[in-house]
Amino acid sequence: MNKSKILVGDVVKVIAGSHKGEIGPVTSISKDKRTVSVQGIDVVKHVKPSQTDQEGGIKQIPANINISNIALQDPKNKERISKIGYKIENGKKIRLAKASKSPLKKAGK
Prior knowledge:
Strand order of the largest sheet: 4-3-2-1-5-6
CATH architecture: Roll
Low-confidence stretches: none
Structural class: mainly beta
Strand content: over 45%
CATH topology: SH3 type barrels
Shape: elongated
Order of helices and strands: EEEEEEEE
Distance between the termini: 28 Å
């Protein structure tokens, strides 16, 4: 299992692939830490009818993106960042973008 600097709720930018340049919060990370799902990035797929889905047809399905194809978004200058620092404030550990020294906030907070 790999250690990842990206957590659920972090705002990320897609840096490679067909969705390059799109920005959104991470909604889920796979257990093996290799793929993530980003809100607003979907794939169009043909789905065959089944017992549960009588219609089938063309559907929008959330895309899983390899973790190497996304980068954290710097909250201050809106560029991607590569280094994360930490600071303890009021007894809590806060993640910072090292270049701009701004705290990384989760999308929901």
